[in-house]
Every structure is written in C-alpha cells, then in structure tokens.
Amino acid sequence: MKTIAYLQLNGNAAEALSFYKNALQATDVTEVRFGAFGQDPNYPLSETEQEMVMEARIEFSGNVLMLSDVLPSMQAVTGPVTSGNTVLISVIDAEPTVNEQLFTNLSEGGAVIMPLASMPWSASFGMLIDSFGVTWKFNSDASKFLNGFNA
C-alpha cells in the first residue's frame, strides 16, 4: 500500500500539470480529460468541463504526485476548491543540491516562506508556497533527525 499527495484544482489542473512536470523534472506524466468518456445524458458536461483534467499522475525521482480538476457540478456538492494550509507536501532526505533545484523551480511565481538554509536539524531546510497555493517543505535530513528520537 502507498499514500501519495493528490491535488484538487479549480479548472487549472492542466496548467499545474505542466508546471509540476517541469519543476519536478518528471520522468513520466499521464493525464486523462473528462471528455475521454462518453457523456451521461442525465449529467452532460459542457465543452469546458470536458477539457478539464479528470486524473493526472506525475512520476519524479521515484515519487508520484496526482492531481485533477474538480468540476463545477461537483463543487456544488463538495463546496468550492480553496487553497489552504492544513496539508503540505514534504520533500525529505534529498541531497541539498536536489532540494535547491526543486525549491528554485517550485518557487517560481510563488512565495518563499523560509529560504533553504542549513539548520541544526537539517543541512537543507526551507518552505514555500507555489503559484497554485500548495505549500512545500524541504528537509534533507528528516529521517536522520526523527530516527535520533527513537527510544
């Protein structure tokens, strides 16, 4: 079993997919649009909705990030898609040079919360919010740090 990060977006998943593909230096990208399936006459989708991303997967450095658009009709039930601060994506145990490259790429058009720097607990630690409102945390020594506290 695996657990992965899955981003839900408000009609801009294709733009996010392109951004993350480049920023994360993806090795494989797969995407399916809502229009790839026959229309249900009881719940027809507009042309705009048919072009939205139903499911996408980005593979990079042995990791997976998935994302999709949330259709307006779905938001009528689930509520609107909003950027938040209750979940972040943490890049752990990467070499500091890898952190630097990903941090630079992901911060383009976003906001740096804490620049990458050496800390007592990590050779390379930093945080940012990307241009899609997703918070990223980098900690090159996360496992080493936490393992030091095992009883």
What does the model show?
This protein has 151 residues and is an alpha/beta fold. The chain contains five helices and eight strands. It has helices spanning 13-23, 47-50, 72-78, 96-107, 142-147; strands spanning 5-9, 28-33, 53-60, 63-69, 88-92, 111-119, 122-129, 135-139. The longest helix is centred in the last third of the chain and has 12 residues, at 96-107. The model has no long low-confidence stretch (mean pLDDT 93).
| Distance separating the two termini | 26 Å
The helix fraction, in percent, is 25-40%
Name the overall outline. Answer: elongated
Radius of gyration equals: 18 Å
Biggest β-sheet strands, sense, barrel: 4 strands, mixed
Strand content: 35-45%
H/E series, N to C? Answer: EHEHEEHEHEEEH
Low-confidence stretches: none
Strand order of the largest sheet: 1-4-3-2
Give the class from helix and strand content and strand pairing: alpha/beta
Number of helices: 5
- Mean pLDDT reading: 93
Number of strands: 8
Structure keywords:
single chain; 151 residues; alpha/beta; four-stranded mixed sheet; 26% helix; 35% strand; elongated
How would you sum up this structure in a few lines?
The protein is α/β, with parallel strands linked by helices. About 25% of the residues lie in helices and about 35% in strands.
